[in-house]
Amino acid sequence: MVVDDHPLLREGIAAVIDGQPDMVLIAEASGGNEALEMFRTLRPDVTLMDLQMPDVNGIEAIKAIRTEFPEACIAILTTYRGDVRALHAIKAGAKAYLLKSTLRKELVDTIRLLAAGKRHFPPEIAAELASHLDKDALSDREIQVLQCVARGKSNKEIASQFKLSEDTIKGHIRSIMEKLSANNRTHAVSIGIQRGFIEF
Question: In this protein, which residues make up the domain named Response regulatory (predicted)?
């Protein structure tokens, strides 16, 4: 089953799978809710799931499917290399991480690996995950503060929103910049988006 909100991508994947003697595409879904409904009915051996979708995102959809069907074999399809997204996807139960930019080369091999009960994470994703494991992760509060900075809020506005002192917010921002090795607030937001700490 392929789950993606872009019909063109689904058609491309369908064309590749149709050319394989040992594979059949049994379903296409454009969102997470539809994917769960189809999974209940069809129980595909392998599901390819987009991360960013309008109704329910890929990570939530994986959690929902694997809650009902723990043996579900799901690969994430994404344009993002962000390590935090990869970690969330893996924690949710994804068994593979496919970058859309490498689909042509890796799609068929990855489906076969998954069908054989194996996992697949591209070397660049594995390397990126490893490179960030030794760095401090942002705390929940730091992520909230960074999200506010991304929306253009001042320290005073952020302090007021969380009922904290301005000095406390300044401390959070210092910590965020240190952990992300950022030069300034804008750079911190840009790294936060790139690494998947915040959605924007």
Answer: 1-115
